[in-house]
Amino acid sequence: MTTRPFGARRYRPALPVGLALLLGMAATACDTGTGAAEPSPSKTTGIAKPDFGATTGNAYFDYAGKTSYTDGPGDLLGPHYSLRIDSIALTDHLTKLQAMRFVDTGSWKPPEYDTLKPAAGHRFLLIHAVGPKHNPALPDYKQNNAPPKKVKGSVRVGDTVVPLPDDLRRLALSKDSAGSATMLLSIPAKGTPLLQVKDAGRTQSLDLANGRRGTDAISAFYPVRSGKDCSTGALRQYPRTSTTLELSCDSLSLQPYAEDGGWAPKGKAWLTLSGTTMTAMQDIGGHPVPFGADLDVPKSFSLDIGNGTRVTAKGDALTGRPVAPGTNGLPGVAASTGPYGIRFPVPTDFRTGTLHFSPHGTFTLDGKHTAWSPSKSPEALRLTVK
To answer: Where is the signal peptide (predicted)?
Structure first.
């Protein structure tokens, strides 16, 4: 009598969602003569290899040993990822139909077994992920699509670390997504599984038995405090022309990590603003010329945080290639746009402060250097995060 053990391959993005991979089926004898305590095979039982694992987008989560978290879904959030787990299953078998969810039916024959069991000393862990409540902390990664080199995931059971069989992005769905994903791993049979995610050099863990974050959780992510009404600008006006410099703010938040600043020092956080810089020159005579700016951020931005303390900003704010007059539907206006991202070091308990903007840097008018002398100083802007 013979049996064919299952083995796993890594997920291939080109395959349809919901299909995982098998290394294949290899014939083995019932008694290998090694004395190993393998599960007893039969004509209807398949034995998985120790590294068996895959991911599926199949919506069904009907596995034996299923546990739903009584305190609600477990969330992990980092600079580049957001993850929500609402249930797991720990089981010693999969039915044929369940196993087929992790089989590439386009390349392999369906399993020949009615039941799939883990290798000796192992059990199956199935992790069910749903759409997270929040986007990743950094606005540039709101699609939850950080490359694998930025975010690494694993499951620790005692002293054993089991790498995830697929890219963590297979579990990190888009915010409020109606879909779900299930990741299957083969783990040691004894011990509590902990999901560990390393992002920007720091690891956070989630106890998969109850969905609770570990003591290594970074409190500033739960929640990430944010605000609105953070746009500002300056105006230089003459009898026939006017030149404006506007900062259209898309994001205001209090972050423990910034891409260009790393992790904030202990007791500090980064108050970050990002958006679009736009300069525009309007000529009532119909002869506008491009006006550009490359701001000296520390000299241009400061923030009063109370108790007589004012801090300066770090980052970049500049305009890009000039836009021809009329391109934006504004006849007689020549505009230039570009990105900006600035950050202030503030205490972790910061909630409100006053932003001051006084343009300093390099300015050009029709490609030639020019000075900036605003007709009116910009008004101070109150910033608040909640």
So the answer is: 1-29
Residue with tokens 């953070």: 230
- Phi, psi dihedrals of residue 31, rounded to the nearest 5°: -115, 110
Quick one: DSSP state of residue 229? -
Asked if 209 and 187 touch (Cβ cutoff 8 Å), the reply is no
The amino acid at 213: R
Strand partners, 251: 274
Instruction: Write out the E strands in 179-286.
Output: 180-188, 193-199, 202-207, 212-213, 225-227, 232-237, 241-255, 257-258, 262-263, 268-283
pLDDT tens profile 71-80: 999 999 999 9
Written as one string, the DSSP assignment of 41-80 is: --TTEEEB-TT-EEEE-------TTEEE-TT--EEEE-SS
CA distance 339 to 258: 16
146 near 81, Cβ under 8 Å? yes
List the one residue out of 248, 230, 258, 270 whose CA is nearest residue 139.
258
Asked which of 173-182, 326-335, 337-346 is least confident by mean pLDDT, the reply is 326-335
Quote the tokens at residue 321.
């290639």
Could you say which DSSP state residue 156 is in? Answer: E
Q: What is the spatial distance between Cα 16 and Cα 169, in angstroms, rounded to a whole number? A: 15
CA distance 81 to 108: 33
